[in-house]
Every structure is written in structure tokens, then in C-alpha cells.
Amino acid sequence: MLSLEEMVSKGKSKLDRKADQMGRSWTAAKERMKSGYARTPFGTTRKSNYNSGIDAASFRTDNEKWARNWAGKMKE
Q1: Residues 31-63: pLDDT tens digits?
Q2: Taking Cα atoms as reference points, which of 58, 55, 48 lies closest to residue 24?
């Protein structure tokens, strides 16, 4: 059985390998997010602010933060 540290290392490696694809998928989903939100009953100001936020947002991973959080949760 793997130790917790080995599991964290394995998870970080997977995240490294998948990060580019995850970023591309997230970027591709931006238009779907905006069109889905456009169907809500909210007003134009809310929808405009949401769209601006989606346009300004960018995908990034923080492997060290993930490792700390995951290991901490698994120790509970």
C-alpha cells in the first residue's frame, strides 16, 4: 500500500499531466457558462457582470496548494 506522501506525489504528477487539457476544457466552457447564465431571469446588469467575470477569469492550477489540502483532508 502507498504511503500518504506517495499518494500525494502520484496525484501531483497526474495534475501536472492533465493541467493543460483542463485549462483548454475550462476555456472552451466559457461560452457555455455565459449562454447558460443568459437563460436565467436575472437583469442585464447581473448578466453583464457575470460575463465580464467569466471573460476576465483564467484557469490555473496550484499543485502545492492541492497537495496540502488533499493530504490534510485525508489525515482527518
Answers
A1: 999 999 999 999 999 999 999 999 999 999 999
A2: 58
**What is the DSSP track for the chain?**
---HHHHHHHHHHHHHHHHHHHHHHHHHHHHHHHHHHHTSS--HHHHHHHHHHHHH------HHHHHHHHHHHHT-
In which domain, by residue range, is 15 found?
A: 4-74
Provide the residue count of the chain.
Answer: 76
Evaluate whether 51 touches 64 at the Cβ level (below 8 Å): no
What's the domain count of the chain? 1
Taken in order 41, 46, 52, 54, the sign of the CA dihedral is negative
